[in-house]
Amino acid sequence: MEELDRISVGEFKETEKSPIVLVLDNVRSLNNVGSAFRTADAFRIAKIYLCGITGTPPHRDIQKTALGATESVEWEYCLNTGIAVEKLKSSGYRLCALEQVENSTMLNEFTPEKGGKYALIFGNEVFGVEEDVLKACDQVLEIPQLGTKHSLNISVSLGIAVWDLMVKLEQF
């Protein structure tokens, strides 16, 4: 890690975080959960909310893809996603679900407010983001796609969305 000029877990915990949190809404794959932690570490995400049936650390399948990021990234479990959404909304976060719905905004056309705080919400691999959670969101974002498949894996969507928001919020 020294050769890559990476910070330690302790330094990570003390450093300023990006204005982004992640919400995993009933994500069933522990590998996707681990990937979310690893991406969160890479971009200094403030926190991950693990909701509903979403698995929590410690678990070997999460660790397999997180590669230790569960030690650096702050996380909280919520029995249902509505609890996390209410908490984030009252803390001034703009709630953005990643989903394919009517009237969604294409990610490449989305312009976040500079200085704003954002919660990116990712849903279940089969059913997506819960309907009541979608209704509570300020925005629904969609990643444009050109192929024959109708969706991307959550870990891929999460990486694309976080990278896009980090660039637009000038976090680099």
UniProtKB/TrEMBL annotation:
Do the record's keywords include Secreted?
A: no
GO biological process, any: methylation
Alphabetically ordered keywords of this record? Methyltransferase, Transferase
> Where does the tRNA/rRNA methyltransferase SpoU type domain start and stop, copy by copy?
20-162
What SUPFAM superfamilies does the record tag this protein with? alpha/beta knot
Annotated GO MF terms: methyltransferase activity
Any Pfam family from its record, for instance, is: SpoU_methylase
Per its record, how is this protein called by name? RNA methyltransferase
